[in-house]
Amino acid sequence: MRIVIQAAFVAAALAIAAAPAAVSAQSNVGGIRSDIVNEDAVRALYSEFTAAWNRHDPDGLVALFTIDGDHVDPDGRQAEGREEIKATFMKQHATVFRATTLSLTVDDVWFLGTDVALVDGTYAIDGVQDPSGNAIPPRKGYLTAVLLNERGAWRIAASRLMIPAPLPWREE
Q1: Which DSSP string do the residues of 19-66 spell out, in sequence order?
Q2: Which of 45, 129, 154, 169 is deepest in the core (most CB within 10 A)?
Q3: Which pLDDT belongs to residue 30?
Q4: Which strands sit side by side in the sheet containing 153-162, from one edge to the other?
Q5: Nearest 5 degrees, angle CA 59-CA 64-CA 70?
Q6: DSSP bridge partners of 155
Q7: 64 in Cβ contact with 156 (< 8 Å)
Q8: Averaged in consecutive runs of 10 residues, what is the pLDDT profile of the chain (172 residues)?
Q9: Distance between CA 70 and CA 106 in Å, rounded?
């Protein structure tokens, strides 16, 4: 499975690198019926994810991952497999994320085959508190995920979150 996920990330990177610079962040389904149905299912999965987050429901969140899926937070902490992912969500939602609200937008869904999809999106988490209970500004970032269609259901196999940081050598 890890090889499939790694191959999917490499294929996605090559597809993105070869794409024209002015591509809008829309669907890449091109009117293909199966892609439209699958994209709707992928977007529904992320609606479920958002609802589970806003209910502070670690069981609901982890149910959306493959059994051996993994999740990487913006600080690089990785949870592998449903048990570790659930433990991560349980700890976060009992502490710093206990009063949060998630807004998540799926910007693009790329199908790398009939059972593999790459998802790009953005998210914002409001209501984050530090360990002392002090408010932290909203956490905004990007997500990239590889999803697998297992027995007719899309599940998150690899989720990567990123919070943009300014680069000192870039002039804006």
Answers
A1: S-TT--SS---TT-HHHHHHHHHHHHHHHHHHHHHHHT-HHHHHTTEE
A2: 154
A3: 56
A4: 78-80, 65-72, 153-162, 139-150, 116-126, 101-111
A5: 95
A6: 148
A7: yes
A8: 50 43 44 76 97 98 98 97 98 96 96 94 97 93 97 96 91 72
A9: 19
pLDDT for the residue 36: 83
- Residue 28: what pLDDT? 53
- Do residues 73 and 96 touch, judged by C-beta distance below 8 A? no
User: Longest C-alpha distance within the chain, in Å?
Assistant: 51
Length of the chain: 172
Q: What is the pLDDT of residue 37?
A: 87
Q: How far is the C-alpha of 75 from the C-alpha of 162, rounded, in Å?
A: 8
CB 61 within 8 A of CB 49: yes
In this structure, the number of other CB atoms found within 10 A of the CB of residue 106 comes to 22
Asked whether the beta carbons of 98 and 129 are under 8 A apart, the reply is yes
**Which residues is 124 bridged to in the sheet?**
103, 140
Q: Tokens 């969500």 label which residue?
A: 89
pLDDT at site 155: 98
> Which amino acid, residue 65?
F
d(CA 135, CA 127): 7
Pairing of strands 78-80, 65-72: antiparallel
Q: 77, 102 in Cβ contact below 8 A?
A: no
